[in-house]
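User: Before I run my own analysis I want an independent prediction to cross-check against. Here's the chain; please return only the structure tokens and, at the end, one sentence I can use as a sanity check.
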Amino acid sequence: RVIQEFYLPFTVWINGLLWPMFALIAVIFFTSRMAFNSEIIAILNAGVSLRRLARPYLVGAGILALLHLVANHYVIPHSNKTRLDFYHSYIHKESDHGKTRDIHMFISPDTKIFVKDYFKRDSFARNFRLEHFEDNELRWLLKAEEARWKGAPNKWELNKYEIRTFDGMKESLVMNNRDKLDTTINLTPADFVRYDDTKEMIPTNRLQDFIAEEKLRGTGNTRVYEIELYRRTADPVTVIIVTLIGMAMASRKVRGGMGLHLAMGIVIGALFVFVARFSITFATNEALHPLLGVWLPNIVFGIVAAILFMKAQK
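Assistant: Structure tokens:
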């Protein structure tokens, strides 16, 4: 079970993370060997332009980028769900950072809940309040000392409740300290659970809905989820950029041969990771827009790729 639910999904995740680096090293490896054997010079002397030489590289990079795009948006999140469920259940059980006290949350554009204390183990809330607004005015208010989850679909049991209804200056009150009220609320225990890596478990189609829902509910910062969404598209483009960099850099025959080219490739890969981490940190801390923070490394190294290609051996 450990192999099936943790190590195999971990292999899928780490492979997707390192795919641009694999592409860079692979391109440098075989291009440098061709340059060392003077094959690049022979091809160029035969009248083949550098652009024509780069075409099969770009076609191959495009195919890899397309596969990476599909994997990033759908395959890897499903795999991560299996891996991280196992991780949170058996390895790091205390990694849930969801709020349990003084929770304010919109469950619809005009309905808000407040929970003083929430007990995750029992799916039980104390000092529960449900407020409904119309035209920015409070229309009715439901308060209960206790609210207990009763299962799907969104069923809750309220104890010791009171309902206040407002109509202009008029107010009506219903109190019941003996009977229990069974009701349906757009709220589940999952709404109180948050892991730092929740974003990695959600496929893109659901992640977009999740971001919109979190913004509606006002439960916290959605920037980390937006960054993850943009990253899934930016990473495949990175494959194309590093392929062009590797091809332009390794096509020139140098005294150090393949070893020098591989060393330069590793340095470029490290610089890319460094710039990416910095820009994502700025985006997370609201110094940059999430879209710009994710795409900034690709923009910078895209310019580097263009310069290297223009100055490559003709």
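Sanity check: Residues 50-91 form the longest helix (42 residues).
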